[in-house]
Structures are given as structure tokens and as C-alpha cells.
Amino acid sequence: MRETYDILKNIVSEQDILTKEYMKNHTSFKIGGSADFLVTPRTVDQIQNLIKTLKKENIPVFIMGNGSNLLVSDKGIRGVVIKLSKNFSSFSISGDEVTAQSGILLSTLSKSIVNESLSGFEFASGIPGTIGGAVTMNAGAYDSEMKNIVEEVVAMDMDGNIKTFTNQEMNFRYRKSRVTDETLVVLEAKLKLEKGNIEDIKAKIDDFTVRRTTKQPLTAYSAGSTFKRPEGYFAGKLIEDAGLKGIIMRNAAVSSLHSGFVINTGDATCENILELIEFIKLTVFSKFGVMLEEEVRVVGEQ
Question: Are 175 and 100 in a shared domain?
């Protein structure tokens, strides 16, 4: 442990290194044991140096953003967690193009995009998380997704090489991309939007906001939609039709507001959440013959 700490402090400031840091403090689920180390680099050079050095030393690395789509093991994460969020949150807008670093929150970026009367980003305004996470998972809502607006992505591979990918090269699919295929680290994304009417844009966002606040448990501890949408179905509808809406197992529950959300009622463990997820999957499959697939990313020592 001391050896790893010495390696880290030669790359980043000691104030940017946390030891035995509980991951529940860094995820929207409020669940997760401790990471051996959690580092918040301030520059791309530091990220590159960390990745190269830790690989050379055979120290495991996990990259995260805002932690809004993660379920971390109760045993935590071994090695080093590199968190990219507030230190990588700059952006610029030129005409109808937006260039944003990976750590900026979608909600923050949305406000500036609206002020420039740019349309196409409305669907993302209420999605929790960062632009990096949204690109990684090809986040989407209300019949739109990141694939429709991303022009190019700057990313780093796990050897520390920085590359620029076009939209086509990103291989965007439903909740997947080249980033998930190759374990890349998103550094920056360039979006191509359209000039629009600011009042129309605001009205669209307001409509999406009302829909979200009335139909989704936004104040609960969760990772958003727990399951991917199975082809031809809606996960939440299947779960509700299976009679599981509002069910509570230990401290994990299916939201009574939207059955597609598994939530932490306050003191749930990762094991509690996973047990409920498995129960939901088996119940839905036994009733409808559809096997649900998790959208939430489960990480850490099992």
C-alpha cells in the first residue's frame, strides 16, 4: 500500500489522493466498500502518467466519472480509482458546435447550450452524470441518444495513447460504444447541434422535466434505469406486470413510482441490490419468457 501511495504522490498532489475511501461517497446509489486509493487528477498529462505507470507496476486501475451508473461491491475496489469529474469540466461553444471535457455534468452543460439557442441536447438535460459517461454508454432518453449529436470523441486507451474518433468510429449502439468495447477513457467530446428557438427549446426541456419528476424516483438513491430495454418491451412495464412494483427485499426496493428503478432505501448493500435484481430477472423470465439485462454497471471485488 505504501509503495502504491509513493507512486501516486510522484504524479499527483497528495491532496488529490484518498486512501481507503468508501465508494458509497462517490456513487448515486450510496453503496460501495472502500477503494484502496481514489485519485482526482487535474490534467490530461497526469491521467496519462497514472495509466502508464500503474500498468507498468501491474496495479489495477478503474476510471469513473460522476458515479451515477455504478453499483460498487461491498468489498470495494482494489487498486486505484481515477475519478474524472470537476477537474475536467470546461467547455466551449462555437456556432452550432460544443466541445466539452468529459467531467462536466450534463445538467450544467445543458444550461449553457440553451442560452446559445442550440437544439438537440434537450433529451440529455435531466440525465444524471457527465458527458464522458453519456458518451461511454450512448445515453439516451425520449427517442434520442448521444449517437445523434456526437461529432467526434477524444479518448485515451489503457496504454496511455490519445486518439480521436469520428461518430462512425465510435460504434455507438444501445447503451454501448467503442469506449465500452475497448475500455477507453473519454477525455473530450465534440457535439454538433442545431440553431433553434430558445423558447421552444426551454419548453421541450420543461416537458421532459415534468415527465421525469412525476414518473421517476429522482430523489431516491439509485443508478437510474436498472435494466436495458428488451427489444419489443419496456423493462418497467414487465416488472410492474409481474407484480413487483414497490416490492422491498431487505433494504433494496423496486420503486413504487417507476418499476424500472431499483433503489436503495437507505442502508442497502450491494449484495441486497444484486439479490433483488436477480429475483426480478427470474420472476420476469418465468412469467413472460424475457430475460432482462442490467444497465447499471457492477464493479469491484466480488
Answer: yes
Strand partners, 189: 100, 153
Active site residue 175: yes
Q: Give the type of residue at 274.
A: L
Nearest partner of 28 among 264, 209, 248, judged by Cα: 264
Picking from 55, 83, 111, the residue at the C-terminal end of a domain is 83
Set 21, 122, 145, 295: catalytic member: 295
Domain's final residue, options 51, 83, 115:
83
Clarify whether residues 143 and 27 are in a common domain.
Answer: no
Tell me the percentage of the chain whose pLDDT exceeds 90: 98
Active-site position among 85, 110, 175, 229: 175
The question of whether 295 is a catalytic residue gets the answer yes
For position 93, which CATH number holds?
3.30.465.10
- Confidence category of residue 2, pLDDT binned at 50, 70, 90: confident
Q: Which of 10, 34, 8 is nearest to 21 (CA)?
A: 34
- Grade residue 247 by pLDDT with cuts at 50, 70 and 90: very high
For the question of residue 211 being annotated catalytic, the response is: no
pLDDT at residue 85 in the model: 84
Averaged confidence pLDDT in the chain: 97
pLDDT at 302: 84
**Total domains in the fold of the chain:** 3
Q: What are the helix (H) ranges across the chain?
A: 2-9, 44-56, 106-115, 131-137, 178-182, 198-215, 235-241, 270-288
Cα distance between residue 15 and residue 12, in whole Å: 8
Residue tagged active-site, from 28, 222, 225, 259: 225
Which structural domain, as residue segments, surrounds residue 8?
2-83
